[in-house]
Amino acid sequence: MNEPITPVTLETDRLVLRPPALDDLDAVTAACQDPEIQRWTVVPTPYRREDAEFFVNVVGTKGWASGSPTWCVFEKATGELVGTQGLTHRGPGRAEIGYWATASARGRGLTLEATRAVCRWGLTERGLRRIDWTAYVGNEPSKALALRAGFTIEGVLRSWGEQRGRFHDVWMGSLLADEADRSA
């Protein structure tokens, strides 16, 4: 999966997932001011517009070119940015999903809908055999979402996840290709 991927747009009933674009800089910058996004992800803190530019130009554009696609997630009804999704290449047939949701999107099932779409795409269109999921121990909303998306929690990796120079225990889960119907 580390070969270049032609960027694709995914659609669900309520969402459009598309590669990040320069027009998204203000929305991404605003979203990443959220203390919960900063608490549970590796986004820089404080988060500046330059960080959003890095996200769009490097994580976004170069990610697709290196086989690690990223999407900005928009609600169809409003056009509002409600989160991001990404699949980071982790070896032959394997990727790790990552996501964050804006405060206004939480609790509405939008991130679950987006996660299911990304997993379906990765397992069917990209031919992945396994999608990993990790979250810092304590991030109960992410764990609940992963379980609802069909992931099996495999355990705790001690002192595994680095965030701003500190290491944290993380939960690890997976969704296998023959379990794709669990993410439906």
From TrEMBL:
Molecular functions (GO terms): protein N-terminal-serine acetyltransferase activity; protein-N-terminal-alanine acetyltransferase activity
Keyword Membrane: no
InterPro entries: Acyl_CoA_acyltransferase, GNAT_dom, Ribosomal_N-acetyltransferase
Keywords, sorted A to Z: Transferase
Gene3D superfamilies referenced in this protein's UniProt entry, alphabetically: 3.40.630.30
Any single Pfam family the record assigns to this protein: Acetyltransf_3
Protein name as annotated: RimJ/RimL family protein N-acetyltransferase
Species of origin: Kitasatospora viridis
High-level lineage: Bacteria, Bacillati, Actinomycetota, Actinomycetes, Kitasatosporales
